[in-house]
């Protein structure tokens, strides 16, 4: 395993650009060559030094986890304005800007619809999920790194949005990690399960899934009057 002593990750705009370049390069190489690709190759692909890669991530397991976590979160985040990417999903700020219970329900429903479409259309995301399932047999340390990262760490965009809604008193969320997993289980994971069997949910069934899933989530997490 490739490891360096743990250090605080670099901060600032320049460091963020380098981190993004490393994640993009690692994603491309992992998809082409698998987890066995060397950190030297990743650094060269990103146009940075190997030391820079370790300063940001500390180990290849941590880098792989960041790559996959980012890919899972992208469909819900509208990153087009930020870095030219096309996540395909709504801006999660819409959840925070919504007004009243009906507004939050509508914003979460639209997020669920967009997320489902993005998951179905995301060929690279499917390839990464297949890669994880394949490489776990050869590199069990990936599973340990993934578990240690935790659900909220895997889906920071969603976790941050739910945390903000809870802080504003719009949702009552005693366990953020459970809430993240429940939201994904209701709105997203069914698409991934169908995908593993070479098929997908119909538009009509997907719409029912989102509508009922949002109602179940809000019924559980809306604060009592």
Question: Which keywords apply here?
Answer:
225 residues, mainly alpha
What can you tell me about this protein's structure?
This protein is mostly helical and 225 residues long. The protein has helices at residues 13-33, 39-46, 50-57, 60-73, 80-83, 93-97, 100-121, 123-138, 141-149, 151-154, 156-167, 176-187, 189-196, 203-221. The protein has 14 helices and no strands. 32% of the residues are buried.
Tell me the layout of helices and strands.
Elements: H1 13-33, H2 39-46, H3 50-57, H4 60-73, H5 80-83, H6 93-97, H7 100-121, H8 123-138, H9 141-149, H10 151-154, H11 156-167, H12 176-187, H13 189-196, H14 203-221
Helix pairs in contact: 1-2, 1-4, 4-9, 7-14, 11-12, 12-14
Classify the secondary structure makeup into a structural class. mainly alpha
Largest sheet: none
Helix amount: over 70%
Number of strands: 0
**For the CA atoms, what is the radius of gyration?**
18 Å
Helix and strand pattern: HHHHHHHHHHHHHH
Shape: globular
Distance between the termini: 52 Å
Percentage of residues in strands = under 5%
Low-confidence spans: 78-89
| Total of helices | 14
- Mean of residue pLDDT? 82
């Amino acid at each position: 395993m490739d490891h360096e002593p743990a250090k605080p990750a670099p901060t600032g705009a320049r460091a963020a650009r380098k981190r993004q370049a490393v994640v993009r390069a690692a994603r491309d190489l992992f998809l082409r060559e698998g987890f066995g690709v060397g950190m030297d190759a990743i650094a060269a692909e990103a146009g940075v030094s190997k030391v820079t890669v370790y300063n940001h991530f500390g180990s290849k397991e941590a880098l792989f986890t960041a790559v996959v976590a980012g890919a899972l979160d992208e469909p819900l985040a509208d990153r087009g304005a930020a870095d030219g990417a096309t996540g395909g999903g709504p801006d999660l700020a819409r959840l925070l800007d919504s007004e009243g219970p009906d507004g939050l329900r509508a914003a979460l429903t639209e997020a669920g619809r967009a997320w489902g479409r993005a998951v179905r259309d995301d060929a690279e995301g499917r390839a990464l999920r297949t890669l994880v399932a394949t490489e776990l047999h050869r590199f069990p340390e990936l599973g340990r790194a993934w578990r240690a990262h935790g659900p909220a760490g895997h889906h920071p965009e969603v976790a941050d949005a739910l945390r903000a809604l809870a802080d504003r008193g719009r949702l009552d969320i005693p366990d953020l990690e459970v809430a993240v997993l429940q939201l994904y289980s209701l709105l997203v994971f069914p698409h991934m399960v169908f995908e593993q069997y070479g098929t997908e949910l119909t538009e009509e069934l997907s719409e029912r899934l989102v509508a009922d899933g949002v109602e179940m989530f809000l019924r559980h997490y809306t604060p009592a009057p």
